[in-house]
Amino acid sequence: MNDTAIPPKKGGTSRKDRLAEQLRANLMKRKTQARSRRTGEPDKRPEGLPTAEKMHKD
């Protein structure tokens, strides 16, 4: 193999540029989703499983 770089195709953007743009768009989308979830009221559910109060013998 030779050590010369392969020039990008004419008229288009390079693969690296396209991937970078898609990554930025995905990040913006995920940030928007996270912000929309934060705008609601805090979750009123208890964290984890409830503890057993007493053992009931049948």
From TrEMBL:
Residues 38-58 have a biased composition (Basic and acidic residues). It comes from Mesorhizobium neociceri. Residues 27-37 have a biased composition (Basic residues). This is Uncharacterized protein. Residues 26-58 are annotated as: Disordered.
